[in-house]
Amino acid sequence: MLELTPKTITERSALRVNPCKSCQPVGALYAALGVRRCMPHSHGSQGCVSYHRTFLTRHFKEPAIAASSSFTEGASVFGGGANLRAAVKNIFDIYDPDIIAVHTTCLSETIGDDLNAYILDMDIPDDKIVVHANTPSYVGSHITGYAGMLSGFIRYLADRRASPNGKTAVFPGFVNPGDIREIKRILHLLGLPVIVFPDQSGVMDAPMSNTYRMYPEGGTSIDDIRSLGGCGRALALGNFACGQPAGDLEEKCKVAYKCLPLPIGMEATDSFVTEAAGSGGVPQELEDERGRLLDLMLDANPYFYNKTLAIFGDPDTVVGLTAFSLELGMRPRYIITGTPGDAFVRQTEALLDKYDVTDAVVKAAADLFELHQWIKNGPVDLLLGTSYGKQIAKAEDIPLVRAGFPVLDRYGHSYMPIVGYQGAMRLAEMMANALMDRYDRDCADEDMDIVM
Ligand code: SF4
Fold it and tell me: Hey, what domains does the chain have and what are their CATH numbers?
């Protein structure tokens, strides 16, 4: 596979090889799929939306619907206003969504299409809505696009005059539907009235039935997005994916928000549960789950202790995985994300400082080619991240545990949480099993044990 990746590292500033991110519209599309009866719309060429849909479909193993402005040469020269007008009319006539969420692409951004002006000037049926977000892919990543699209919904829909509803707005982060289910389950156990926005559970993990439904039951309703303005407070899980929309909600509707790390691992889940519970107390069921996680972490500690690993993927997820691997007694050696931003380095280094890890390399806007080169110069025991680590795993013969986005070459992952105490147990099991399988494979016959 990639055995020929050179060991000698050349500093690059303007070139990414094997990037550790995708483009902004992928995130914008996923955000829009978390809104009920919403049709995501890509304002650009058909090639872009084909890629975005395919990418999401391969990860979730579910159809990711989206329409396109279908730019050709004419739209690229004269602007895509006419295409968007025709598209919006056709989508409402043929597919009948309640809302269309338009995101831009590199091409429409480069020619300077003004989506605000187009939408204001459009003939939109009274009971329908069109919102938009600017998602040029030559900056940021799919995480930036996700945050931008959520902000677009808030800008258009969150009602600053909404009646106080006593609810907490929860932004669950760029996570799988299985994670959102787990977050909702924890909030339910805490008895907290919430609006979870967005909510891809029930959409990107809709049950199989005899009938295809273009708009499955799940998703945050438009009324709920409007009511975000009446919430008493907001919790944003993950600074990179949710800090911006939560900030926009605060600015527009004066809903104070608190940004927490994604609840991956013990301490981050503790923070989430404690913050969500407030003065309400934590039910025994969650205390028990925490106790079981602690038990597992202690039991398997000899297999985790001092093992080195490389962690790669989306910033909020990587920060969570780093925190959990430190809690397990492991030593993260290389930690990268493809999404740009100094905050990632600051957040991760603060975690490493807490555990006195001084020899780890942390980099944002990084790529997997460079990670591979680092590993060639200093190997690790485990890879923890997306499917794109697969070639490194094969070339260097290192076990890979898949977590985060995207996981393109496995099934079932999007149903299973990695958040909360239960998600941490699943992660710990996958990581311990990978390390123990490797031990069994490499150990001498006389050291091969059935009871570990
Ligand atoms: S042209 Fe831009 S928006 Fe389209 S697929 Fe490529 S990076 Fe994404």
Answer: 24-157 (3.40.50.1980), 168-206+214-280 (3.40.50.1980), 284-447 (3.40.50.1980)
